[in-house]
Amino acid sequence: MKLSRALDRLTPVVGAIALLSLAPNVSAQAQELQKVEVTASKRAQLVIDVPYSITAIGGSEIADRGVTDIQQMQSVVPSLFINQNAPGASRIQMRGLSQGVGYGPALVGTYLDEISLNMPDAQRSLDVPLVDMARIEVLRGPQGTLYGDGSMGGTIRFITRAPRLDKFEGSVEAGFSQLSGGQTGWRANGVVNVPLSTGVAGLRLVAGHEDLPGWVDNSVNGAKDINSAKRDFLRGKLLVKPSANVEVTAMFFHTETDTKNSSGSKSDRTIASYIASPTKDKTDLFNLVANVDLGGVRLVSSTGYLDRQIDTTAELTAVYAGAPFRPLVMPKPTSGGAYRQDMSQKITTQEIRLESDDKGPLTWTAGAYYRETDTRAVTSDVWTDANLRLQGGFDGTGPTNVRQTALFGELTYAIAPQWSVTGGLRSFQEKAENVGTKLPSGFAPPGTPSTVYNDQASFSATTPRLNVLWRYAPKSALYFTASKGFRSGGFNATQTPREYGPEDIVNAEVGSRGTLLGDRLQYEVAVYHSKYRNVQAQDLAAGCTPATCRALTVNSGSASGPGVDVALSAALAPKTTLDLTLGYSDLAYDVKTQERNPGDPLNFVPKLTASLSLSHRFNWTAGLPGMLRLDWQHSDPVKFIIRNQGVNVTSNNIDTLNARIGVEKPTWQLYLEGKNLTNSNGVTFPGIFGLPDFRVAPRSLGVLARTQF
Questions:
Q1: Per-residue pLDDT at 440
Q2: Is residue 562 a contact partner of residue 588, using CB atoms and an 8 Å limit?
Q3: In the predicted model, what is the mean pLDDT of residues 101-105?
Q4: H or E element: which one contains 325?
Q5: What are phi and psi of 627, to 5 degrees?
Q6: What's the mean per-residue pLDDT of the chain?
Q7: Domain count within the chain
Q8: Residue 632: exposure state from Cβ atoms within 10 A (0-12, 13-18, ≥19)
Q9: How far apart are CA 138 and CA 290, in angstroms?
């Protein structure tokens, strides 16, 4: 019934698309919708041949929408929901799986070309500027076979453009925007491609800077727009082809984000802040990929290194505001308290795989994977008027060092020209440790010794996948997928229980994709059911308050439920396209525990997300082509429940409208842009224990100019 009601809400929209697609003014020669080649299955294939749910977003569409990061692209992808509390603080969720706000790695795998961006115990997804991208591939559902631990909800792959070996070229763009009631921001990006040796070697460099405007005012000291930020990045990619059967790519990526303060606020976009909450987030990444054709078999080697440093301060004055903490640790009305963490992670990865060629009915991939993470974190409490340490500081592995090894393989057999079956398996072992020292609380008796932790744990899993693909028409396919995803357990930083166990999910789905109405309507629909076991969730230990105990992660029971993904793209006319996406997930707890009731949703997960986009090309005058784009996005409220603390809060329905209009000449373009045109002020992430809510950024109006050479 719940699923039926959700679909009923979208029926008028779907009907409108169908009617418009059949309208008599639609030309029989309407343009065929774009076909995108992907490498989601570790080999090149058309989207129509991928036997599971996937969205591929080409570089031209990314540029057409004028977006700068994945958070702004979520309207294109069914069941993708990204909650961004500040630049670089995105929580990526897919198909109802939420990271919550505890420890543990992400539930959606993210990759830049061939290197994983996921980090143990770092809930801040790494921002990848969407400049000079070849495409983005979003794989929905568990991807444990080819992408391993953490890809339970799905995997996002950012594929950068390869250097051209035959042509010098580049582009420059610059723009500015004005926030309603806030600052003016600006950004500039540049791309240059240099062939070092024609047909043999080329270098492609991409760089950019962005001043992100603030809009939250501090009611304590009168400071304006305290949540502004700056973001810089540099990416270089070297391609060398020394012979016809050898290709080597080396990529370097540096990004740095400096956020002045958290973006939480009251409805009037103000916050009472006594201690600044800045965050500095810096990453250096290197990826070396060698691809060698051995004759019938390809050898691929990917070596990666990622060094990320996150220094962050989170103000907790409101948490400590009540008795007995304010008179003890914050004696003045203007006193403030905060939690600070300086964390460094260095990650080394190596993957080697063999891939068969695409000849014959049997194709296969087999590989081995190694990943080692070295973490260091120092935490402390910051006070304006006292030296007491209510919780005590921590100096250690932050809390997890991880070493993982895996073997994986996938085999596809074409039973007939229209039928293929794919089976895959991944087996991995992981060793984790938490080593560190916790300083005693400020309330502890003098001379209380520090607590030393030395936790060790091992985790292992085997994650299978089975796919069946039926090409029942030349441009249409039906697929069935059964897959399993896994996420390792870990350690709580300073709580009991110290260790929490692994979790897994089993997913079964049936989907179809293809084209109708003479290629004027492209569609993908998937219906799935998930069984989620030993769910890792945030709680507080019995007898704790937020001021005396940090949140801990526990295994909170099992959850299950159905879901639906819908993506439609209709060519209403030769130069007009309407896109619709819908994601519905009814994943809910099955068991009753102290913290959960049957039917409770997972924390921070919207049941329904949807979007509608209209794109139109036209001529302003003869020889002056133009474009117009409208984008509407909706997400249902999310809930956050901690019953032993009396917490049961809900966010708002979020509806935003963006627009873009411009001139598009072959060598230059000029756009006017508007985001959140209705100036929605809805709560996206509800605050608890006196902490502020996080809200949609206010209306933004701006201009962007771009030129190519």
A1: 77
A2: no
A3: 64
A4: helix 325-329
A5: -145, 155
A6: 87
A7: 1
A8: middle
A9: 24
